[in-house]
Amino acid sequence: MSAKNLSTVASDLIESYGKTAKNVIDAYRAGGERVVSLLEQRWNQALKQSRTELTAETAKNASAAQAAFSAYYTKGLIYTTNGAQQVVSQLVKVAEAGVERAAANASLFEEKTGVTTLNTIAQATAPGALALSKLAAQIEQKTAELASKIAGDDKAAAKRSTAFSQRRKAA
Question: How many percent of the chain have pLDDT more than 70?
Answer without folding.
Answer: 87
